[in-house]
Design brief:
Layout (H helix, E strand, L loop, with lengths): L8 E4 L4 H6 L6 H4 L3 H4 L6 E6 L2 H9 L3 H11 L4 E6 L12 H13 L4 E5 L9 H9 L3 E7 L8 H14 L3 E6 L6 H14 L4 E5 L6 H10 L4 E4 L13 H7 L11 H21 L12 H5 L3 H13 L6 H14 L9 H15 L8 H7 L12 H11 L17 H8 L8 H7 L1 H29 L3
Parallel strand pairs: 1-2, 1-8, 2-3, 3-4, 4-5, 5-6, 6-7, 7-8
Helix pairs in contact: 6-7, 8-9, 9-10, 14-16, 15-16, 17-18, 19-20, 20-21
The structure holds cobalt (II) ion.
Length: about 475
Amino acid sequence: MSEEKRPVKITETILRDAHQSLIATRMTTEQMLPIIDKMDKVGYHAVECWGGATFDACLRFLKEDPWVRLRKLKDGFKNTKLQMLFRGQNILGYSPYSDDVVEYFVQKSIANGIDIIRIFDCLNDIRNLETAVKAANKEKGHAQVALSYTLGDAYTMDYWKNIAKEIEEMGADSICIKDMAGLLVPSQATELVQALKAGTKLPIQLHTHYTSGVASMTYMKAVEAGCDIIDTAMSPLAMGTSQPATEVMAKAFEGTPYDPGFDQNLLSEIADHFKPMREEWLESGLLSPKVMGVNIKTLLYQVPGGMLSNMVSQLKEMKAEDKYDEVLEEIPRVRKDFGEIPLVTPSSQIVGTQAVLNVVMGERYKTLTKESKDLLVGKYGKTTLPVNPEVQKKALDSLGMKEPITYRPADDLAPSLEKFEKEMAQYKQQDEDVLSYALFPQVATEFFKYREAQQTKVDASLANNENKTYPV
Ligand code: CO
């Protein structure tokens, strides 16, 4: 008896999450472009190539315009959908923006080539997703809501099932389980996918990281349980804190009802493009063996890989590297005091920094960061469980507030696009520039100045050439 074919769909992450997770988001557009033609022939469901930290990294480190990158990728990918990662009301930044900025960013992302917007909120507060989802609906883009996956008393199968229902009602086109720390183990994946399938008719996608070493087995179980789409990365930037390898997953499903039907020869040619880069990144130290192995501590402390490396550099700066294990143990305590929230940008940074301070100061919550205070008084949204009332009182007092916020935080934010337009008018060369500025005012301004200087240089050298070619 043969089973009905249900090929698994695959989203390729090498152009976004894989290099964000392994080499601090430093892959340049020039490194991507020569291989796009081949990648376009694989038959991917989508290629994730924009958003997340890539926007910030383009402007800050690579001196590239992220919008130009997106347009070049769109030109090359003629048959494959492009996907971006979007931090809900925080867009691609670290704190909430007013609705007009969120709407304009979605509009411009889709106009420049994005097909699928994967939208998540670090607290799974669905009020923080609404503006972006509605904007994507309006622009005829595919609105995928990603649930930040985490463990804890509050996260029962009913929690996931109910939130999936709410997301469907909100108008999302698909749901993704976003397991940023690699916490989802194979047996739980079966249960979770079944629960989500029972709660909604929407397609289910699974996104995980190899950090704890179980990811490819988790994918296998999830797909067998009905998961429609998985996220993988081409082998030169797979495994470790990145995703399972595309070639390996495609091979593993060969001859099963879930066979995606990929051409292994084509995949191998694509891998050959990235292999020499991997060698260079290893040599320069950008790719560290530390992020490539299995780190089972992530299962013990439930801390995403990126958060661990941030923490190490903070402790180094404070000359307190010996406190590493103490901080690791402090993180779950802070997380509990902060309402047992998922740890993903920006909540991972907020909890991580507070845990470092608690340990280094030798007294818990002696100093609260501004972000911790905001989180405790509801300025990021609703936490999964109530926060510790004593710590919250401290935050309220120091902010001069009587009560925490219970409404949607962005309701407090007045439209701000016009203000940003005025501030950056002198640098504007395209409509999208105002969005780069709104998200990263300092970094974008520096980039705009750099861009102008480059253009002046080009003009000058053209003028020079002209003189040489046509001597008067
Ligand atoms: Co990820």
